[in-house]
Structure formats: C-alpha cells, structure tokens
Prior knowledge:
The protein is α+β, with helices and mostly antiparallel strands. It has twelve helices and eleven strands. The chain has a six-stranded mixed sheet. Strands 7-11-9 form a three-stranded antiparallel sheet, sandwiched between helices. The protein is globular, with a radius of gyration of 27 Å.
Amino acid sequence: xxxxxSIGLVIATLIACLMVCGIPSTFAKPxxxxxxEPIEFKPPTPEKRMLSxxxxxYLLEDHELPLFNINGLIKTGDIYxxxxxxxxxxxxASVMRTGGTVSREPDMLNEELESMAAAVEVGxxxxxxxxxxxxxxxxxxxxxxxxxxxxxxxAFREDKLExxxxxxxxxxxxxxxxxxxxxxxxxxxxxxxxxxPFGWYAEIxxxxxxxxxxxxxxxxKYYHPNNLMLAITGDFETETLIAQLEKxxxxxxxxxxxxxxxxxxxxxxxxxxxxxxKDLNQTAxxxxxFGIKRTPDFPDYxxxxxxxxxxxxxxxxxxxxxxxxxxxGLAYMVGSIMNTSYYTDIYQSYCPTAEGIASARVxx
Length: 364
C-alpha cells in the first residue's frame, strides 16, 4: 500500500513539473501571433422617467444581487458660494448629513441605517451636489423613507455646525504645511484670478461667519425636486419603485431657482513663472494651462481622457511616472490632471521633487 502511494506521489510531482515548466515553453507564442475577438462594449440603457413633482429618474433594473443604489445630483456647488462666505456649500453638505433630520437625532439616524447595513451620504463638488443611498433590496421601502427625510428635512443642528467649522478652520491653519496643496491653491488663483469662484479659497473669517440660517437658506434655494435627478440601479421592479418614490416625495413642491451668474473666463493669462518660497529641501512644481469646456457635443473629450491617462493620470503605468520616477529617480510622485467644466478648466502636470528643474525637462 505504501509502495503504491509513493508511486502516486511521484507521478503527481512529474505532472506538476510538466505543467509548470514544459507546457508554457511548448505553447508560448510571441505577442504578435496572438489573436483575440474584437471587444464590443454595449453599455446598458437606463429608462428615463419623471415623477409628478418634476424629479427626473434614470432607472436600470439589475437582479443579479439583492442590492439597491441611488445616486442623486443637485444643480448647485461651490461655484455658488457667496463671496463673503466661501466654503458655505462644503460645510452645508457635511452638516446636512451629520446634523440628522427634524424627526431623527443624528445618533438615531446613524443607528437606524447601521441596523439595515445601509448608508445615506451627502457631498458637494464645484458644480453639483450629491446625495446617495445604498441598501439591501429587502429594505428599499425603509431606505427610501430615510433618504427622502434627509433630502427634505435636514435639521442643521448648531453643535454639528460648530464642530464642522472648527475642523475647517483647523485645516486652513495647517494648509500651508503641505507644499503641493499650497502650490495648487495658488496656481488656481493665478490662472483664474480672485474674481472667479474657481480662483477662490476660504479664509478663517469666511468659515466663522457661516450660520445655521445660511445653511437653511442654501437648502431652501437649491434643494427642490425639479433641480434634482436620481440615477437608480439594483434589484427592484420599476413600477413598484415609482409608486414608492411618489409616496416619499409627496408634497415636495417645485420652485423657480435664481442661479447666480458665473463669469466666463475669457482672458487667457500670458506665460509666466511664479514662485512661492518656503524653507524646504523639496520643490513642488506645477505646469499647466486652461483646458477644455465640458459640453455634450465636444468631439475629442474621450480621446483627451485616454491621452491624459497615458501621459500622467494612469499611475505607475503612465509615461510621466515611468520617465521621471522609475528611469531617472527624480521624484516620488508625478502625474497630470485634466479637469473639465462648463465654464473652463485647467490642464496641469505636477511634480514634487528635490530636483525640480531636471524633472521639468523630462516632463516637457
């Protein structure tokens, strides 16, 4: 019996060796000889619907997993901050979630969501706000009720506002400790000027002036169903979900919204080299210019995104990372960014390095 076992182990070992060593050498081909079927990407098409209150929905049923997700976009953003209260929208988004709702204390809201393994998140970017829900399919009805409550009835409690303001003030006090952040902030101000929201950055007095009434006014101005669209995917039945949404948003009325005028950036600054002196043994270097406006009919948008991924946004596979870091060892971090906007935006390369001039030659 032992003899047979030993023979079996020897045979198994020989087969394993053949698989590891022999087969690849026998069947390996140069990459030029490899052929593949063409890739045909067919993105799913969501169904577009509209609630009776004017809210736009994009619905895509997916019954593979028992999950349910909503991603909501609100037309608002940092660009609509008042000039004397820069940072208002960012603080608004944070306190809208952490402050709970009129009927739910913050801890109660968090515990209720945690018991369902669900999440409701609120965010803010330059040109839009976000509000998201993720939950199990079995909890859609309860999840929608909480989601609508956060959207419609945020409490903006004073203690949560004060905590958020203290955090923002502390970040302002420390923001010059990071050389690359210091460079980015001043780069935007130089490019856009301080008369445009893209060139603004908050100061301590801006943050300290924000009140609960400011948050309530911001919500009352922008958060209406006709200024909101929801992208919904997951394990649901469309008609049932429409009825549930009509119920939780019943009585939420539309409103005419007077959006502040955002100036266009018509004046392109001339070439210049600008320095911010800081006593460090490292140089944070940015090279950039105006980018493209994001419009639906811009033909080269996706080509530019692919180009930028190859140049510097693709991480360790990008050209900048390979040339500047791996081949020449001139910087730990290097890359490129292509932002887009409906107004205008910037294209830039960044490189914090102790050998800034040598890196610039490689980048260019």
